């Protein structure tokens, strides 16, 4: 049985991605906001959209995103992009999440991970967090710069 992505989700995803800096090597959406779910609470229209953004230079990306989307960040924003990237890279699964963001009328959360940490996790399963997200159905938007690696 093939999973069906929600109708017009590709257009919605592109509109949401347009709110962020363009330097993404990979972006993917996953979860109940993307794929139809069965069960009594299967209201996909109001389900949170979950994204992961892969970036080659997290400091530069966070710097640009802070300029565009200052209100997305926790108090760490006052410490700057270098500190945010240090937290991202050195704690947990190597992902920095901005949760509970309203974007184009939808509730989203997005995690940012460096390309090198993503590849390392996919190849060696260092912590399985992002690899685990990709074991489930995911809707991929691959940049042309993301070469030499296939999913």
TrEMBL record:
Main localization category: mitochondrion
PANTHER family: PHOSPHATIDATE CYTIDYLYLTRANSFERASE, MITOCHONDRIAL
CC per GO annotation: mitochondrial inner membrane
EC number: 2.7.7.41
Name by which UniProt lists this protein: Phosphatidate cytidylyltransferase, mitochondrial
Domain of life of the source: Eukaryota
GO molecular function term, any single one: phosphatidate cytidylyltransferase activity
GO biological process entries: cardiolipin biosynthetic process; CDP-diacylglycerol biosynthetic process
Subcellular location as annotated: Mitochondrion inner membrane
Membrane topology field: Peripheral membrane protein
Cofactors demanded by this protein: Mg(2+)
InterPro entries according to UniProt: Tam41
Keywords assigned by UniProt, alphabetized: Lipid biosynthesis, Lipid metabolism, Magnesium, Membrane, Mitochondrion, Mitochondrion inner membrane, Nucleotidyltransferase, Phospholipid biosynthesis, Phospholipid metabolism, Transferase
Main function: Catalyzes the conversion of phosphatidic acid (PA) to CDP-diacylglycerol (CDP-DAG), an essential intermediate in the synthesis of phosphatidylglycerol, cardiolipin and phosphatidylinositol.
